[in-house]
């Protein structure tokens, strides 16, 4: 069976009850959503995070994540059965992510597509994060964006659904990952982002002098491994990790990590302000976009440049299938379907 031919779908002829089922399993969140094609409404969304199971390892263990997806996804799917008769496509995250966890979602998607005789839609997870800004609504272009997640740190420029350029990315660790690693070093658990942010609220963010990454480089790149190692050295030197020490090192680390993001983002805004076809909207997306200090900092830059800040609802900042469904709507209307040869791609070079 193959639906890979391109054939646009007429939205006017799409019935109100037509739906897309979407599956997300790129990392440690098992999630399924059902979205109405006509009005983009999310009629079902469930996500079960595996944070507790990975917490004692201080990070995601791919084999455990994959086994848990194999258990959890069918349980969530059970609740979606009443919608099966109206499904018009099955969407699934195929890139980027962990190879064996992506495979779990893809296997389920292929099985459903075959059994229900409806097409498959392959979705890029990062595009999903971008479209988390436009759940249940029309997308706005052109748009600048800062993507901050556990796997990626990127500056993006989006001109349309199929024109999304990566302007900058990290040369080593990602922003969210550096929070996870600092949390692990301090024995605070996983995911580190919300834990470190919470500790940082009570600390002195100037208590430790930490190096600002890529300080003298004016080009567009991010780096967090040097900062992470500087934090490691401070922790190793500290004999007793008092409550105040933990709060201070978290606050100092967070301040520098955000200052690094902010400095590079500001260069992006400055360039944009001089461009003929500049964007007037800027999104902060990905799991780490929940960080309030980061949000305030980007808001400050947006205010300075007269750009409107867009944020996803908090519950859709981290990985979820609703954002995958939102991208799938666009692909469906463009007739962009995958076939049974669809494969997962752990790494990504474009969106
Ligand atoms: O987008 P996401 O759910 O998964 C990936 O696609 O990677 O992002 C998860 C990442 C984790 O590294 C987590 O620690 C980080 O986002 N994160 C945060 C915060 N909340 C989640 N990082 C910093 N501050 C936060 N408040
Ligand atoms: Zn993500």
TrEMBL record:
Domain of life of the organism encoding this protein: Bacteria
GO cellular component terms given for this protein: cytoplasm
Entry's EC annotation: 2.3.1.234
Gene3D superfamilies: 3.30.420.40
Catalytic activity: L-threonylcarbamoyladenylate + adenosine(37) in tRNA = N(6)-L-threonylcarbamoyladenosine(37) in tRNA + AMP + H(+)
Binding site for substrate: 147-151, 180, 193, 197, 291
GO terms for MF: iron ion binding; peptidase activity; tRNA N(6)-L-threonylcarbamoyladenine synthase activity
Keywords: Acyltransferase, Cytoplasm, Hydrolase, Iron, Metal-binding, Protease, Transferase, tRNA processing
Subcellular location: Cytoplasm
InterPro entries in UniProt: ATPase_NBD, Gcp-like_dom, KAE1/TsaD, TsaD
Gene Ontology biological process terms in this record: proteolysis; tRNA threonylcarbamoyladenosine modification
Cofactor requirements of the protein: Fe(2+)
Domain Gcp-like: start-end pairs: 42-325
One Pfam family linked to the record: TsaD
Cofactor: how bound: Binds 1 Fe(2+) ion per subunit.
Annotated positions binding Fe cation: 125, 129, 319
Keyword Nucleotide-binding: no
PANTHER family listed in its UniProt record: TRNA N6-ADENOSINE THREONYLCARBAMOYLTRANSFERASE (PTHR11735), TRNA N6-ADENOSINE THREONYLCARBAMOYLTRANSFERASE, MITOCHONDRIAL (PTHR11735:SF6)
Similarity annotation: Belongs to the KAE1 / TsaD family.
Function: Required for the formation of a threonylcarbamoyl group on adenosine at position 37 (t(6)A37) in tRNAs that read codons beginning with adenine. Is involved in the transfer of the threonylcarbamoyl moiety of threonylcarbamoyl-AMP (TC-AMP) to the N6 group of A37, together with TsaE and TsaB. TsaD likely plays a direct catalytic role in this reaction.
Name this polypeptide is given: tRNA N6-adenosine threonylcarbamoyltransferase
């Amino acid at each position: 069976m193959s639906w890979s031919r391109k054939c646009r779908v007429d939205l006017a002829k799409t019935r109100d009850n037509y739906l897309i089922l979407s599956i997300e399993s790129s990392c440690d969140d098992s999630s399924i959503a059902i979205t109405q094609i006509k009005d983009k409404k999310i009629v079902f969304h469930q996500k079960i995070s595996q944070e507790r199971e990975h917490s004692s390892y201080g990070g995601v263990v791919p084999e455990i994540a994959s086994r848990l997806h194999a258990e959890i996804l069918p349980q969530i799917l059970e609740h979606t059965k009443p919608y099966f008769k109206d499904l018009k496509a099955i969407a699934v995250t195929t890139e980027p992510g962990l190879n064996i966890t992506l495979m779990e979602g893809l296997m389920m998607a292929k099985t459903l597509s075959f059994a229900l005789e409806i097409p498959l839609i392959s979705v890029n997870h990062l595009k999903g994060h971008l479209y988390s800004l436009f759940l249940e609504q029309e997308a706005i272009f052109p748009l600048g964006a800062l993507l901050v997640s556990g796997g990626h740190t990127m500056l993006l420029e989006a001109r349309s659904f199929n024109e999304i350029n990566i302007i900058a990315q990290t040369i080593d660790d990602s922003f969210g990952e550096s929070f996870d690693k600092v949390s692990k070093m301090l024995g605070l658990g996983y995911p580190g982002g919300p834990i470190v942010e919470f500790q940082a609220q009570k600390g002195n963010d100037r208590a430790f002098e930490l190096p600002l990454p890529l300080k003298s480089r004016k080009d567009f790149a991010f780096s967090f491994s040097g900062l992470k190692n500087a934090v490691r050295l401070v922790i190793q030197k500290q004999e007793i990790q008092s409550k105040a020490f933990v709060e201070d090192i978290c606050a100092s680390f967070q301040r520098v990590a955000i200052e690094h993001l902010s400095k590079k983002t500001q260069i992006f805004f400055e360039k944009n302000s001089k461009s003929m076809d500049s964007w007037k909207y800027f999104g902060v997306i990905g799991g780490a976009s929940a960080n309030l200090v980061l949000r305030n900092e980007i808001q400050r830059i947006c205010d300075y440049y007269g750009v409107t800040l867009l944020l996803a609802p908090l519950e859709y900042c981290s990985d979820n299938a609703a954002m995958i469904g939102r991208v799938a709507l666009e692909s469906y209307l463009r007739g962009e379907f995958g076939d049974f040869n669809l494969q997962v791609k752990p790494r990504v070079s474009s969106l």
